[in-house]
Write a structure and sequence with these properties.
mainly alpha
Length: about 110
């Protein structure tokens, strides 16, 4: 799961660089913020899962609660972003989508 997080971080940086080249620094910052809105809760969830496995406290209920907290944090961050910065929506959505698609493709390639 941490390998997927590294791929997600690299993809966020690539999209931010591309957005910065095409539309400027505001778009690059929006792409970073959009990707980070999913990446950071996902990274914390992955670290929590790793800790649960290490301490042998795994279970379906804990996983579901952690996933619900992660998704709630993603939604909260996406709602908060326009209030704290000027958002370039296409760049933000591109940053968010690239993180989601890296997650999807990593899972597809693993099976």
């Amino acid at each position: 799961m941490l390998k997927i997080a590294l791929l997600q971080a690299a993809s966020i940086l690539a999209v931010a660089a591309l957005a910065g080249l095409l539309k400027g620094s505001g778009a690059a910052l929006s792409a970073l913020a959009g990707g980070a809105a999913y990446f950071l809760p996902n990274l914390l969830f992955a670290l929590r899962l790793r800790l649960a496995v290490a301490t042998r406290q795994t279970g379906a209920a804990g996983f579901l609660v952690g996933e619900a907290v992660k998704l709630s944090a993603v939604i909260a961050l996406l709602l908060l972003l326009p209030r704290v910065m000027e958002v370039n929506w296409p760049a933000l959505i591109a940053g968010l989508f690239v993180v989601l698609f890296v997650n999807l493709f990593a899972l597809l390639l693993k099976t």
